[in-house]
């Protein structure tokens, strides 16, 4: 039994295997890895792409998904993470958990006797990172020989992206304002992985410096779910970190723009950026389906 709570739960060669499986599934290669199996989706946060992609992906692999909304579970409110995990383990074959605190999914996993997949916590978004790698490989043919620039909050998405790019030997530079840099623990982990794989993970304050020479420019929201009370302060602190046409023009001529969505035009991106010919955001969104199916296929295939 294996769980996937962090990008680091897969070795670099296993990440590539998951991506290879994802690409094959996207091309129509059949898999019945989840035939007769039931996956429970436990979400404390609302979702469009994550819920849809897991539900469809599980079905395509021959399984069945059962969704529980925030009101139905309320981890550590109605019941403890441990008790929910034990019940799910008695009746289902795996759990996909989307929660606020990473410690809750770690406790859930420790009590569970079935695989647990992290569908987002405050610390990481590892399934999104797999879809991002798949999208990058589709447009660049691999992961080396070019630079990825991430602009904005050093949040869970930035952490998983840094770990993922480091794992596959790529180059990433993260530009964040003071006080919003990647957490020290995540930066240390990414650096340790990079030292082994030959990757490059660096940090700057200037968005212009980060995008210089970049072939991929990536951003995320300034205000994540649960941070609504900080919205006014964050919008002020992130002024100058908007990805717009002018910023993209400073990157490589064939640059591609990525965003994990949802998007807030006028904030982290300018109006119309989703329709910019350099944007591959909807390809990226679709790849949530294929990358997660590839992950589940990897976790449940015999041998």
How does this model look, in words?
This protein has 303 residues and is an alpha/beta fold. It folds into 2 domains: 7-124 and 287-300, 3-Layer(aba) Sandwich (Rossmann fold); 128-284, Aspartate/ornithine carbamoyltransferase (Rossmann fold, 3-Layer(aba) Sandwich). Helix content is 43%, strand content 15%. It contains 12 helices and 9 strands. It has helices spanning 12-26, 49-60, 70-73, 81-91, 102-111, 126-140, 156-167, 184-197, 207-211, 231-237, 245-248, 281-300, and strands at residues 38-43, 64-68, 94-98, 116-118, 147-151, 171-175, 200-204, 214-219, 256-259. α7 (156-167) links the parallel β5 (147-151) and β6 (171-175). It is globular, with a radius of gyration of 19 Å. The protein starts with 11 loop residues before the first helix and ends with a helix. 49% of the residues are buried.
CATH architecture of the largest domain: 3-Layer(aba) Sandwich
| Terminal CA distance | 12 Å
CATH class call of the largest domain: Alpha Beta
Largest sheet: 5 strands, parallel
Proportion in helices: 40-55%
CATH topology of the largest domain: Rossmann fold
Helix and strand run? HEHEHHEHEHEHEHEHEHHEH
Overall strand count: 9
Give the helices and strands, then pairings.
Blueprint: H1 12-26, E1 38-43, H2 49-60, E2 64-68, H3 70-73, H4 81-91, E3 94-98, H5 102-111, E4 116-118, H6 126-140, E5 147-151, H7 156-167, E6 171-175, H8 184-197, E7 200-204, H9 207-211, E8 214-219, H10 231-237, H11 245-248, E9 256-259, H12 281-300
Parallel strand pairs: 1-2, 1-3, 3-4, 5-6, 5-8, 6-7, 8-9
Helix pairs in contact: 1-6, 1-12, 2-12, 4-5, 6-7, 6-12, 7-8
């Amino acid at each position: 039994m294996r769980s996937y709570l962090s990008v680091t739960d897969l070795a670099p060669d296993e990440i590539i295997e998951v991506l290879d499986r994802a690409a094959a599934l996207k091309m129509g290669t059949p898999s019945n890895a989840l035939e007769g199996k039931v996956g429970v989706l436990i979400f404390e946060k609302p979702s469009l792409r994550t819920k849809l992609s897991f539900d469809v992906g599980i079905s395509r692999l021959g399984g069945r998904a059962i969704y529980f909304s925030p009101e139905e579970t309320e981890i550590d409110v109605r019941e403890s993470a441990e008790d929910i995990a034990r019940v799910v383990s008695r009746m289902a074959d795996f759990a996909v958990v989307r929660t606020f605190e990473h410690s809750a999914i770690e406790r859930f996993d420790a009590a569970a006797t079935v695989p647990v997949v992290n569908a987002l916590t405050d610390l990481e978004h590892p399934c999104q990172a797999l879809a991002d790698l798949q999208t990058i490989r589709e447009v660049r043919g691999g992961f080396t020989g070019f630079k990825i620039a991430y602009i904005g909050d050093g949040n869970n998405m930035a952490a998983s992206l840094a770990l993922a790019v480091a794992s596959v030997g790529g180059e990433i530079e993260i530009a964040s304002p003071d006080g919003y840099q990647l957490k020290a623990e995540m930066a240390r982990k990414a650096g340790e992985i990079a030292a082994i794989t030959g990757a490059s993970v660096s940090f700057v304050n200037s968005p212009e410096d980060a995008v210089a020479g970049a072939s991929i420019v990536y951003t995320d929201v300034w205000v994540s779910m649960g941070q609504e009370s900080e919205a006014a302060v964050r919008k002020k602190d992130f002024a100058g970190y908007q990805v717009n046409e002018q910023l993209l023009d400073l990157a490589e001529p064939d640059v591609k723009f990525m965003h994990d969505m949802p998007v807030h035009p006028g904030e982290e991106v300018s109006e119309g950026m989703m329709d910019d010919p350099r944007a591959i955001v909807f390809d990226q969104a679709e790849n949530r389906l294929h990358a997660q199916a590839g992950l589940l296929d990897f976790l449940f295939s015999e041998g």
